[in-house]
Amino acid sequence: MTSPNAVWPLFDLTLATPRLELRPIQDHEIPAAVAAARTGIHEPGRNPFSTPWTELPAEELGPNMARWYWRCRAECTPDSWTLLLGIWHKGEFIGCQDVGAKEFATLKTVSTGSWLRQNVQGRGLGKEMRAAVALYAFDWLGAEVAESEAADWNEASLGVSRSLGYELNGITRKAWGTRVETVQHVRLTPDSFKRPDWTLRVGGHEAASKFLKIT
């Protein structure tokens, strides 16, 4: 029988840091992602996401997450792609780190977003997983810019950005669900990147880059 990895080469991609493994979420792992999200990601009423998906009723959270994972796969092309990487720590699913791009061949720019279970926050894991995708983007994909954003009150996310060398890149006002938030944009380049003192281990890159037509 042909394996899912044979028809969707991105499933073979793995990024390994000293404490974490990042890899694309497969269907059989979606329940673990939903279970992790249900444990709590942020304080009630302080939603850091532009789409308030964490505020959905429990019975709607799973189907909504599954639809998002399937949508990202279905819309993945060399011109527009998002890699949804699950985060495993000591064998447990603890969150998600995404990295994506539009017109990457021309712009050489990626954007990132992430979430972590609340009960593992504050240990430097958010910084470690963001550093992993920055290293992968710059050193393996040939990106020239990595962008991110956060509500201006989200000190945890902005603190990770500062610690890795991101520079402030303007603010905007956006509708986040039913609220209006002031959003801080940040920008990282290979020159400003404060690289970690560890080496990223990558598997499955050749097939993934060929699939995305990244040379």
TrEMBL record:
Q: Which UniProt keywords apply?
A: Acyltransferase, Transferase
- Pfam families (alphabetical): Acetyltransf_3
- Coiled-coil region: none
Domain N-acetyltransferase, first and last residues per copy:
19-166
InterPro entries xref list: Acyl_CoA_acyltransferase, GNAT_dom, N-acetyltransferase
Does the keyword Acyltransferase feature in the UniProt annotation? Answer: yes
Q: Is Iron given among the entry's keywords?
A: no
Protein family? Belongs to the acetyltransferase family. RimJ subfamily.
Q: What is this protein called?
A: N-acetyltransferase
